[in-house]
Design brief:
255 residues, mainly beta, eight-stranded mixed β-sheet, 1 helix
């Protein structure tokens, strides 16, 4: 069982300030790109998230910052029945006139795992944020599709202190097969993206064409200040390609 914390703060001048990162988490390649965005890579070193692990990550975009955080690899969630649950908790704080984008590695729950992935987004009413998640229903190539015990995904998003999005979704294959019409329905990867603030990705029309030729999906307006885009893809590669396309488009948006 391992517990860790990591925190990244970026100011408007594009300087990365790593308060701390305890193993197995670490920050890598924090730098300012030619287009003015500060890029950072978040890593969890090792063989994945194990039963009993809890990893907390805090990302802060201060006033005037433009920050993009990526994961470099998929996150396997390991575990066996009757062992302790594991979890990750990520908070993203975005100040006035700042932008933060979070594109983590895909989550792959393995046989017997019980995992909770929590995300909290707190965005200033004059800030902007885009957070993505990709989830694969197990290692299908190894016959583990829907073999995990439980996967809980909890997302809370506020803009200017107002609740914009709240979801607490639980998948338990023993109770409802992952390929039910309300689930993956034969697809191999799901994607969710939450866009907050007054900028182009917060419009549902901006998401037209993101799924390409292979995926299916669509966007809906949030109760205030944003949009939620969801999609299913036949392969993880297709989902990752769509996420790269979103990153390319969002970097061209005016800050």
């Amino acid at each position: 069982m391992t517990s860790s914390r990591a925190r990244l703060v970026v100011d408007g001048a594009g300087r990365g300030q790593v308060a701390w990162a305890s193993a197995p988490q670490r920050w890598a390649q924090v730098h300012r790109a030619a287009d003015g965005w500060t890029e950072a890579v978040h890593q969890t070193i090792g063989d994945g998230v194990f039963a009993g692990d809890l990893h907390r990550t805090a990302i802060v975009a201060e006033e005037g910052a433009a920050l993009l955080v990526r994961g470099v690899a998929a996150v396997p969630v390991r575990g066996r029945a009757l062992e302790a649950a594991c979890g990750t908790a990520t908070t993203i704080s975005v100040a006035r006139d700042a932008t933060a984008c979070f594109f983590p590695g895909s989550v792959i729950p393995q046989v017997g795992s019980d995992h909770t992935a929590a995300l909290r987004m707190d965005v200033n009413e004059e800030g902007r944020c885009l957070a993505a998640s990709i989830i694969v229903p197990g290692r299908t190539g190894m016959g583990e599709r829907g073999a995990f015990t439980r996967l809980r995904v909890r997302t809370t998003a506020r803009v200017g202190g107002r609740l914009a999005f709240l979801e607490d979704a639980v998948m338990e294959p023993s109770a409802a097969p992952v390929d039910d019409p309300a689930g993956y329905y034969g697809f191999d990867a799901s994607m969710t993206m939450i866009a907050l603030g007054n900028w182009a990705p917060a419009s549902i029309d901006w998401w037209d064409g993101v799924t390409g030729e292979h995926g299916i999906g669509g966007a809906s307006a949030l109760r205030s200040d944003g949009a939620c885009f969801r999609a299913l893809f036949p392969t993880l590669g297709d989902a990752l390609q769509a996420m790269a396309f979103v990153e390319q488009r969002v970097r061209m948006c005016s800050r």
